[in-house]
Amino acid sequence: MTEGQKSLPKWILIVSGLFALLEVMVSVSLCVSPQSVVETVDLSAKGVDYLIYMWAARQFALGFIFALATFKKSIPMLTIAYVFLFVMFIGDFVIGILQKENSMIVAAIVMCIVSSALIIALNKRK
């Protein structure tokens, strides 16, 4: 472990661990009970299950990356994970605008602010 890794604040590790847990929980929810996550989608339509599993795989991969980066206390890995999260929520913001879904827009803005703040905090630790 390098000196830079030792100086990583506990609050960043806690937040990153919570993101890891959240992403894995969403992934499991999508696989086990997709109707609880996507209430407005006809789950019996052809190909929808494929898209749900692709989404679950994306969420699981992000959760795994956050978990590994948090466990290793790796600033570069956490930075990349938060950049990915930021880009993902920009996409959610655009989708929210296109779907005229205000709750998605607000959530995406909040998460973009959170992820960008964490990117800035991590870059100050380099």
What does this structure look like?
The protein is mainly α and 126 residues long. The chain has one domain (3-124). 79% of the residues lie in helices and 0% in strands. The protein contains 5 helices and no strands. α3 packs antiparallel against α4 (75-99). The radius of gyration is 16 Å and the shape is globular. The protein starts with a helix and ends with a helix. The model has no long low-confidence stretch (mean pLDDT 90).
Q: Specify the helix fraction band.
A: over 70%
Question: How are helices and strands ordered from N to C?
Answer: HHHHH
Number of domains: 1
N→C terminal distance: 14 Å
How large is the count of helical segments? 5
| Largest sheet entry | none
Rg from C-alpha positions?
Answer: 16 Å
Q: How many individual β-strands? A: 0
Shape: globular
Strand content: under 5%
Mean pLDDT, to the nearest integer, reads: 90
Unreliable stretches (pLDDT < 50, length at least 5) are: none
Assign the structural class, choosing from mainly alpha, mainly beta, alpha/beta, alpha+beta, or little secondary structure: mainly alpha
